[in-house]
Automatic annotation (TrEMBL):
CDD domains: PLPDE_III_DapDC. It comes from the Bacteria. This is Diaminopimelate decarboxylase. Residues 28-277 form the Orn/DAP/Arg decarboxylase 2 N-terminal domain. It is an enzyme of class 4 (lyase). Residues 22-367 form the Orn/DAP/Arg decarboxylase 2 C-terminal domain. The modification N6-(pyridoxal phosphate)lysine is found at K53. Belongs to the Orn/Lys/Arg decarboxylase class-II family. The active site is at C340. Signal peptide: none annotated. One of its GO terms (molecular function) is diaminopimelate decarboxylase activity.
Length: 421
């Protein structure tokens, strides 16, 4: 069973205050996890840039900023979200692809670290403004590293992201000749990876490039960014990543590769999203109906528009029925939403305690890539987000959408208001 960040009664207390469905995040657990990550890497100059797309809510970003995390942005809206929180400069890394000019303009205006996805963007960016003093390139090694990462990110050769190795070397020389003084190297080859050794291998890969850049081009990197991708054990039989194993493995490589090459100090960055918030947010939903046909269906008031991971990736999310511990006589059901799509299922063939209408279900590990992937298909509205603060209070940090929000982009002025019969 994946662990909830709080006793299940907390979800019931929140549901007494807020209409379901809603997301519930735990501030204390998010803080504690961020501290654990930093403690693991206290031997080096380490920086985590929280991948804003995972949970783009100002309260979450601010909480993580207070725990020394920067922000990894990939769009104009994400940049503006940080700007409005007063986060700027090198607290932001802007990792985009197929980037529109207005996004680059905002990143430049904020003084963010700009991480280019392609060599052609050197010219594209310099047509917009003088290149900044510090620049970073995204590396695509062209070969796979992780186990099931390929499922989400794709095989590197098939992935649209990043520079080839040759382009990297040409690119750094080019920007140096154009006056860039400080250099970073980025890669992102893992996603939801639970094999700790793969993160060590990612470090080996970028350290090798760092050493070669120094030896062949006399380019001294200031930082390497290993990307995000630290996994979350969604399934009961999965184990969490071992941060100490990752940190110790990277430390050994640092001592054997980076120090002898004269590259020390080299800052080590990551940009995790899922790992920072995933296990510390849940989706709270209520049973609306039950249906017995060829299968047993438990229909809830949330749907795939609130959390699309199960429908889109077949992702597993543990489910707790509040007040009903799971036991051996659990019966198997599909937990479904109301979307007119048969993949609108939070669980398939899942043993759950016997439920009744109005029972509360807590869908685990929904704190990252959950609400943020929500959509309005079928006229579904995105739900509220609630933070359980470190003081144990519930604070609504995003209201639910209303029908007015849904209709706001439509123009009815050409249609008579009279009711037709
Ligand atoms: C999505 C993404 C991340 C965060 O990924 P997680 O799996 O949530 O850690 C980090 N960097 C880039 C470039 C991304 O696209």
């Amino acid at each position: 069973m994946s662990q909830l960040p709080f006793p299940e009664q907390v979800a019931a207390d929140a549901a007494a205050q807020f209409p379901t469905p809603f997301y519930l995040y735990d501030e204390a657990a998010i803080r504690e996890n961020a501290r654990r990550l930093h403690r693991a890497f206290d031997w080096c100059d380490f920086k985590e840039f929280f991948a804003v797309k995972a949970t783009p809510n100002p309260y979450i970003i601010q909480t993580l900023a207070e725990e020394s995390c920067g922000a990894d942005c990939s769009s104009l809206a994400e940049l503006i979200l940080c700007e409005r929180l007063g986060i700027g400069g090198e607290e932001i890394i802007f990792t985009s692809n197929d980037t529109p000019e207005k996004d680059y303009r905002k990143a430049l205006e904020l003084g963010a670290i700009i991480n280019l996805d392609d060599i052609s963007h050197i010219d594209y960016l310099s047509n917009i403004a003088d290149l900044p003093e510090l620049m970073c390139f995204r590396y695509n090694p062209g070969e796979a590293l992780g186990s099931d990462s390929a499922f989400i990110i794709g095989q590197p050769q098939e992935a649209k992201y990043g520079f080839t190795r040759d382009q990297l070397f040409a690119g750094y020389q080019d920007i140096r000749s154009r006056g860039v003084k400080r250099f970073g190297l980025h890669t992102m080859v893992l996603s939801n990876e639970l094999n700790s050794q793969f993160f060590v291998e990612t470090a080996r890969m970028v350290f090798e490039i760092a050493v070669q850049l120094k030896q062949e081009l006399d380019i001294q990197l200031e930082f390497v960014n290993l990307g995000g991708g630290l996994g979350v054990p969604y399934k009961p039989d999965q184990a969490a990543v071992d941060l100490d194993l990752i940190s110790n493995g990277i430390r050994e490589l640092y001592q054997s590769m980076i120090v002898p090459a004269g590259l020390d100090p080299l800052k080590i960055c990551m940009e995790n999203g899922r790992y920072m918030t995933g296990p510390y947010g849940v989706l709270v939903t209520r049973v609306l109906h039950q249906k017995q046909t060829y299968k047993h269906y438990v229909g809830v008031d949330a749907c795939m528009a609130n959390l699309m991971r199960p429908g889109m990736y077949g992702a597993f999310h543990d489910i707790t029925v509040v007040g009903k511990p799971s036991s051996s006589d659990d019966s198997v059901c599909d937990v479904v939403g109301s979307l007119c799509e048969n993949n609108d299922k939070f669980a398939i063939d899942r043993p759950l305690p016997e439920v009744q209408t109005d029972d509360l279900l807590v869908i685990h590990d929904a704190g990252a890539h959950g609400h943020s992937m929500g959509f309005q298909y079928n006229g579904k509205l995105r739900c509220a987000e609630v933070l359980r603060t470190s003081e144990g209070e519930f604070k609504q940090i995003r209201r639910g959408e209303t029908l007015e929000d849904y209709f706001a982009t439509l123009d009815f002025s050409d249609f008579p208001a009279a009711v037709r019969s």
